[in-house]
Amino acid sequence: MDPKGQTVKLNDGHYIPVLGFGTFAPLEVTKSEALEVTKFAIEAGFRHIDCAHLYQNEEQVGQAIRSKIADGTVKREDIFYTSKLWSTSLRPELVRPALEKSLKNLQLDYVDLYIIHFPVALKPGEALLPTDENGKTIFDSVDLCRTWEALEKCKDAGLTKSIGVSNFNHKQLEKILNKPGLKYKPVCNQVECHPYLNQSKLLDFCKSHDIVLVAYGALGSQRLSKWVNQNHPVLLEDPVLCDIAKKHKQTPALVALRYQIQRGIVVLAKSYNKNRIKENIQVFDFELTPEDMKTIDGLNRNLRYYEFLPVIDHPEYPYSEEY
C-alpha cells in the first residue's frame, strides 16, 4: 500500500485502507464522469474504492481501476474494491449470480469485500426498487442467515476476499454472529456515520465483536430526494465544526473525516469534484486533539440523512432499533 494507505486489519486477516473513495453519484453525474473521477481518485492516492450494484456504474469504476493497473499506477493487489449485494438478490440462490454479474461488469476476477447492502429483501427481478401499480415497494421475505451462508460460499470460492454487511442494527448483526455453524464473521458493518449521527453505541458493539465500522455519509449528504431527508441542517456548515477547522487551518470536511479515523472507523469520502478529492487525501496530514474529539462527540443528535423511506414498513427495516 502507498504511504497514505493507512490500513486496519479485518477479523479474517485481510487489511482495509482507512480512507475510501465513495463512488455513489447523484443522477446528474454521467457514467463517463464516474470513470474520470475514479481514475483521478486513484491518481490522487485513494486505494480503497467503494461501489455497489445499486449505483449502476460498476462498469465505469472497473474500467477506471483497470486503466490505472494498465498504465502502471497501481497493481490489482494495491486496490481494495468493495461491491454490495442489492436487496433484490438476497435469496441464497441469487447471491453468487449477483456477485458474478458485478465481476463481469467490473471485468475483475475478484472483489476485496462483498457486503449485504441493506437487510431488507425486495422482490427479485430487474427493477432495483420494485413497486406495485400503486407505487408501493414490493417486499420479499428472506432469512438473512441463509443469505449470509451464500456469502460464505462466495468467499470460499475466491470470488471475494472478505464478506460483511451494511445498514444492519446490532440485533441483525447478533442474529448472524449467533448463527449455528457460522463459518466467517462479518468483517464490517457499513453505516451512515457523521458528527450528527456518531453511532457510538453501534461502534462499541462492533468493536466488541472485532467488526470494523465503515462510515458512509461522513460529510453529511448529497440531497438525493428519494432517500434523503431534505429538512436536515447541512453538516459542513456546522459552526462548531467550522471553528475546529479554522483552528487547524483545515476544511470542515477534513475535520469530519479525521474525526472518524481517530475513532478507529474506516471512512468513505464521496466527491465528484477533483479539488475536493485531492483535498480529502490530506486527512493524514493533521491530528485532532482529545478536546476537539470530545467537542465533536457533543454534536451528536441522532440525525439520519439516509432514512431509506421507501422500505420503512418492512419487518427488517433496521432503523426502528435504537442502534
UniProtKB/TrEMBL annotation:
<dbReference type="GO" id="GO:0016491">
    <property type="term" value="F:oxidoreductase activity"/>
</dbReference>
<keyword id="KW-0560">Oxidoreductase</keyword>
<dbReference type="InterPro" id="IPR020471">
    <property type="entry name" value="AKR"/>
</dbReference>
<dbReference type="InterPro" id="IPR018170">
    <property type="entry name" value="Aldo/ket_reductase_CS"/>
</dbReference>
<dbReference type="InterPro" id="IPR044482">
    <property type="entry name" value="AKR1C"/>
</dbReference>
<dbReference type="InterPro" id="IPR036812">
    <property type="entry name" value="NAD(P)_OxRdtase_dom_sf"/>
</dbReference>
<feature type="domain" description="NADP-dependent oxidoreductase">
    <location>
        <begin position="19"/>
        <end position="300"/>
    </location>
</feature>
<keyword id="KW-0521">NADP</keyword>
<feature type="binding site">
    <location>
        <position position="117"/>
    </location>
    <ligand>
        <name>substrate</name>
    </ligand>
</feature>
<dbReference type="Pfam" id="PF00248">
    <property type="entry name" value="Aldo_ket_red"/>
</dbReference>
<protein>
    <recommendedName>
        <fullName>NADP-dependent oxidoreductase domain-containing protein</fullName>
    </recommendedName>
</protein>
<feature type="active site" description="Proton donor">
    <location>
        <position position="55"/>
    </location>
</feature>
<dbReference type="InterPro" id="IPR023210">
    <property type="entry name" value="NADP_OxRdtase_dom"/>
</dbReference>
<feature type="site" description="Lowers pKa of active site Tyr">
    <location>
        <position position="84"/>
    </location>
</feature>
<comment type="similarity">
    <text>Belongs to the aldo/keto reductase family.</text>
</comment>
